[in-house]
Amino acid sequence: MHKGGVSIAPPLKRGLGYLALDPDDTVLSFVRFLAAARTPFLWMTSDQPRATVDGGDVLRVTTLRGIGNADPRRLKDIRAAATTFFDERGPGALVLDCLAPLVLHSGVERVLRFVDDLHEETAMRNAFLVVFANPSGMNRRMIAWLERELDALPRDAEPAGVEDHLVV
Description:
The protein has five helices and eleven strands; from the N terminus they run ββββαβββαβααβαββ. By secondary structure, it is an alpha/beta fold. The strands form three sheets. Strands 7-6-5-8-9-4-10 form a seven-stranded parallel β-sheet, with helices on both faces. Strands 1-2 form a two-stranded antiparallel sheet. It has a two-stranded parallel sheet with strand order 3-11. It starts with a strand and ends in a 9-residue tail after the last strand. Mean pLDDT is 83; it is low at 1-9 and 161-168.
């Protein structure tokens, strides 16, 4: 939300994980916001991105082979991509909006451990984790776990600014 040209949205806190129970169309808006805020991000998605988003990396989670694609059955490879992203780009944001294919190919238990591992990695790296989930197409137990473990993404969320990097 903007008031008088100044953003008054609550900033996301580094080291935390967030859950957005929103329709799919909010993911693209969020990654565009990250790009505009010059926050490095890795967008892990099962969809073919409809538009390019400068400033971030996209990892397509699909069984189709190709450059920039990751197999949803190989959770260790996807986690390794996240670790590599942090190693190369520093503390940024992991945006995960491919839970359905991950659960389909790897099962609820493995995916819950995977999300927990990503959450721990972002906490250690002083970064952000934002998980987008559609409750109507998800296992209720998984949604309940995500709601317990992750903070709700504020409606007007924005990543914290450069002041987070200044020592006063």
